[in-house]
Amino acid sequence: MENVDGVLNTLTFYVTTYGLNVIGAIVILLIGLIIAGWVARIVENALARTQRVDETLRGFFSSFAKYFIIVFTVLAVLAQFGVQTASLIAIFGAAGLAIGLALQGTLSNLAAGVMLLLFRPFKTGDFIEAAGLSGTVKSITLFVTELATPDNVQIVVPNGQLWGASIHNYSFHDTRRVDLTLGIGYEANIADAKTAILDEVSKDARAHTEPAPMVAVLGLGDSSVDLVVRIWCKAGDYWALKFDLTEALKNRLDREGISIPYPQRAVHIVGAAGAASIPT
Asked: What is the 3-state secondary structure (H, E, C) of 139-152?
């Protein structure tokens, strides 16, 4: 009987001493979990209404808000039992600093990934050039971006490299300008060459009429008059139009009798009997 009475007295002591604390801790924990889920849904829905925020970022921010509240809930529960949370926060802070220093490069890529997904300098399917690399964007995650080169080679680039470099997005605008340089002989009539070039360009439906195609004298070379041809087209038609027009304009100038000269140099040989000029 004495043992039973001792056990009952011990149980009574703990129930009266810690019972309310346990009930309070359970209530705090339940309320904290409910609030954490509620805040996560609010953040998710709020970001979903913003078209600029990527789906990956929506999940990241909502999860961050949820676990942020859960951490403070756990600290409040520990405080309910008299645990000195200030020392725990200091320990977690020191541990977080050590982990941050150890994962400095990884966290840098994470921060860059957040910025890329938030500001969206490019999106999946765009052809970009950055950090000395170029390719079509296949996927963007919080840590890396996957590119595919024109010959279908996969490139996985850390986001820190992309965010810290100049980014050329060739797919950002709907239209692009094709620039071609053609050289004609000095004996050729420039006006006739311009007319022939513009006529050939007008036959291609991919060339936009507004802004209108333009042909101008770019410069006077060593062996040719250099003409620049500028045509606007859809961004997706850029390379096909460039390749096709380069061939078509060469054939058209041949039919018009307008030569595309190659470099020539005159060598003057001076001897006792006089000078002779030999073209090379």
From this structure: EECCCEEEEECCCC
Alpha carbons within 13 angstroms on the beta-carbon side of residue 60 total 15
- Each residue's pLDDT tens digit, 127-182: 999 989 999 999 888 888 999 999 999 999 999 999 989 999 999 999 999 999 99
* Owner of token pair 């509620």: 38
Domain 2-102 part of CATH 1.10.287.1260: yes
Q: How far apart are CA 92 and CA 278, in angstroms?
A: 85
Torsion sign, CA atoms 14, 17, 21, 26: positive
Across 6-15, 16-25, 138-147, 185-194, which has the greatest mean pLDDT? 185-194
Architecture of the domain whose range is 121-169: Roll (2.30)
Q: Which CATH architecture has domain 175-255?
A: 2-Layer Sandwich (3.30)
CB-CB contact of 226 with 182 (8 Å): yes
- Output the DSSP codes for 166-194: -EEETTSSSEEEEEEEEEE-TTS-HHHHH
Residue ranges of the domains in the chain? 2-102, 121-169, 175-255
pTM of the predicted protein model? 0.65
Give tens-digit pLDDT for 52-74. Answer: 666 666 666 777 788 788 888 88
